Amino acid sequence: MGAGQSIYRETADGCPMWYGWTSAMHTRFDAILCGRGQEECEAAFRRMTEELNRLEKRLSRFDPVSDVWKINALAADEPVMLDGEMRDMLTAALEYGRKTEWFFDITAGSPARKVHPSQRVFLDPGTGEALFKTRGVQLDLGGYAKGYAVEVLKKELLEKGWRDFLLNFGNSSVYGGGSRPGGDGWRIGVEHPERPGFNVLEVTLRDNALNTSGNMPQHTEHIFLPVSDRYAKDTMAVSVVSESPLDGEVLSTAVFAAAADGRPVGFLRNFGKVSVYGIRYEGLFPVVSVLW
Amino acid sequence: MEKKEPISRREFLKDMCFVAGGSLLATCPWFSAFAQEKETAREKGRVAVIGTGSRGRYHLRHLMNDPKAEVVAICDDYQPSIDEALKIAPKAKVYKDYRKLLENKDIDGVVIATPLHVHRMMVTDAFAAGKHVMCEKSITKTLEDTLAVYKAYQRSGRVFFVGQQRLFDPRYIKAMTLIEQGEFGPIEGIKTYWYRNNDWRRKVPSPELERKINWRLYRDYSLGMMTELACHQIQVGSWALKALPNTIMGSGSIVHWKDGREVYDNVSVLYVYDNGIKMSFDSIISNKFYGLEEQILGNKGTVEPEKGKYYYETIPPATGMMQLLHEVETGLFSSIPFAGPSWVPETANENKGEYLLGEKPKEDGSRILLEAFVESCITGKQPEGLVEEAYYATTLSILGDQAMVEGRILTYPDEYKIDYLNHRAPAPVAEVQG
């Protein structure tokens, strides 16, 4: 995780605008904060980077001191006691699995593929313990953590009275609070992966999130398709606009997984107001379709 | 001659205030030269150019394009240069002897672009004649002469400019503003270099003119790359670090161009500041691959003002975020393309940096430097800091050469210090009563 760097600017009519960025969770985290002085912005960003650091240490499956590493190492043999935050997080993640007909699955890619995802992890609500019901189960919160982090950070900012801000986690999890100075919302474009600067889709965010999952030509085979039991190779993407960055994160992955296997996305009715777009990069011009 | 339509001075100053975020005079106190720009709108500075070689004619073109400058006269003792200059300023009165030109009461200020070895004589004579002076850098080629010019300037009450055009270059102004704001963290070192691949010779029509035309190659006239190139670049050190070095060392040699020249074609000089920070100057004129640059190395980022770019130390800022910031600053509204599948370092482009001015640089500070001089010729007011920056650029260049020639580590001599930054002029010696 990087120490973070920043730029402070003022608009022509004197509105302060602060941009900070850092590396976190193997990608870059950006925050633009508006309307307050440099010191206040720096303090808020420090707090955000501390929180990201903390979450990364808890959720990385590659870090031997993380909670997820510990669960993955032990839970097949013995129940692992979880603290409140971890218990709530796993409960919510498994519930997202159920609501997306397991197209979103935090155990996707586990060797234990013959066991249905709903039968892989047992969370004991009484004791607060986690137990894998079979060997070969591995938790991977990589497709969850960024949305979760943006959800946490956005809530914290709103609680502290911040109104106009933009959070961007690795370009795939964006939340626009309020509006950019002098504008009406934050106008964001989903960029063509091979044509920098070219918008495939344009969205205006006002207190809502834009999440995108998909394959980039340089970075394929990182989303597991539970139905066809393979990693997706398709050069396509799914963008979701929703109020909750966490809902958006989960749904962009789930819809991508369903669409890549040609499955229906009726599970979207289990969620509140969301807009879902599918983008296929075929030929010179990408094809964008409204999926929901 | 067809006149270009460069950005107007007022637009430029407005841009510079924007570039410096309201701290223009703090970063560049010499911009006070334009403080009375509106009041002097109908006035003209009457100027002359002494030395109409290539650099002199470059200045002449800028002066002819400055609506507040009236080019009264030109002077050179080499007729081909005069002939070329008259094509730019056909109405200018021509002098062969600069002393005669200095007698002309219709001239407020002179721009001196002659070989280095005559700077002291010409500048001090110009001050004595009551003229304002802009002299090409370096000021002179010895410490003694440079101090003498500085003292002559102080006594004269006239305006003194030196051709350190980076002081008026928008790229450098923006870079220094960001450095002062701490954008790149504390500055840890500066590496300057100027590489070329040519013999640095001008065509000589007959052998007896060799030293007159190729004066840069001979020690009676110049200290070569130190006074002609380093002088520009090491000035950046005092501007960025707000300090002057006290230790100088280096090594110079003639490696490639063994053609009878007396100045080095391959130099490395190191300037050490009191806090241990170092600034280097390297120049080789038999390889041009790296070109020229001043790399200002901060703990959080690097600036390359010559390229007009800066780079952050860890991961770069997001291009989309930078574009968004720029658009909000400038009141533009478009959809910023950056969202997409997760950005991972493997898919990121190499760190290509950001443009200091949001675009490729268009011009250096030479034109504005001259316009500032003309403005000061009208007001008679000396802008702060400019002479001192130039004084140290010159003396540090000279000391760099001295360190190489003598092959030893030098300490900046107290007797050549003036009151600027961490240096103090020596107290006057009290007369001893016998």
Describe this structure in words.
The complex is a heterodimer of chains A (292) and B (434). In chain A, 27% of the residues lie in helices and 29% in strands. By secondary structure, chain A is of the alpha+beta class. Chain A folds into three domains: 1-56 and 143-182, no CATH class; 67-140, ApbE-like superfamily (T-fold, Orthogonal Bundle); 185-292, no CATH class. In chain A, the strands form four sheets. A nine-stranded antiparallel beta sheet of chain A has the order 1-2-3-7-8-11-14-15-16. In chain A, strands 4-6-5 form a three-stranded antiparallel beta sheet. In chain A, strands 9-10 form a two-stranded antiparallel ribbon. In chain A, helix 1 packs antiparallel against helix 4 (142-159) and helix 4 runs antiparallel to helix 5 (245-260). Chain A is globular and about 60 Å long. The two termini of chain A are 36 Å apart. In chain A, 51% of the residues are buried. The mean pLDDT of chain A is 87. By secondary structure, chain B is α/β, with parallel strands linked by helices. Chain B has two domains: 9-167, NAD(P)-binding Rossmann-like Domain (Rossmann fold, 3-Layer(aba) Sandwich), CATH 3.40.50.720; 183-363 and 393-416, Dihydrodipicolinate Reductase, domain 2 (2-Layer Sandwich), CATH 3.30.360.10. Chain B contains 13 helices and 16 strands. A nine-stranded mixed beta sheet of chain B has the order 15-13-12-11-7-10-9-8-16, with helices on one face. In chain B, strands 3-2-1-4-5-6 form a six-stranded parallel beta sheet, with helices on both faces. In chain B, helix 7 packs antiparallel against helix 13 (386-406) and helix 10 (225-241) packs across helix 13. Mean pLDDT of chain B is 91; it is low at 345-349. The chains are: A alpha+beta (292), B alpha/beta (434). Chain A binds chain B through residues 2-3, 5, 7-12, 17, 19, 21-23, 26-28, 30, 32, 146, 166, 168, 170-172, 174, 180-183, 187-193, 196-199, 202-203, 210, 212-216, 218-219, 237, 239, and chain B through 21, 181, 183, 300-301, 312-315, 317-322, 324-325, 328-331, 333-347.
